[in-house]
Amino acid sequence: MSDGPDLYSIADLAREFGISTRAIRFYESKGLIAPERLGATRVFRRRDRARLILILRGKRLGFSLRDISDYLALYDADRGQQVNLLAEKVDERLELLEQQLADLQTTIAELQEIRKLARTRVSPAS
């Protein structure tokens, strides 16, 4: 049984994921996806589509192309290595985001205090 088409054009994938064909060609140039060619036409298979999903998810979560490339390199390799690398990268990303969140919370609190002080000093005359 097939869940969908076996072949996709670059326009099909661009439309489905709301990205430009240029972005897809960029990921191809970085070796993250490898469509087949029929003459000058790129033909993407389900595997390419699945990899594109992982690339876009990785970018959305803030991973670098290098991190995504390392993960995809293990795509057909040992599943245990892939899971271990993913867990390691997720831990690193979470640690960074948690630190950024703490920094933002500190900055917000400082700005709120400054705003409060500024408003009390410039309160309208009654």
From TrEMBL:
Residues 87-121 form a coiled coil. Residues 7-74 form the HTH merR-type domain. Keywords: Coiled coil, DNA-binding, Transcription, Transcription regulation. Pfam families: MerR, MerR-DNA-bind. InterPro entries: DNA-bd_dom_put_sf, MerR-type_HTH_dom, MerR_fam, Tscrpt_reg_MerR_DNA-bd. SUPFAM superfamilies: Putative DNA-binding domain (SSF46955). This is MerR family transcriptional regulator. It comes from Devosia riboflavina. One of its GO terms (molecular function) is DNA binding. It comes from the Bacteria.
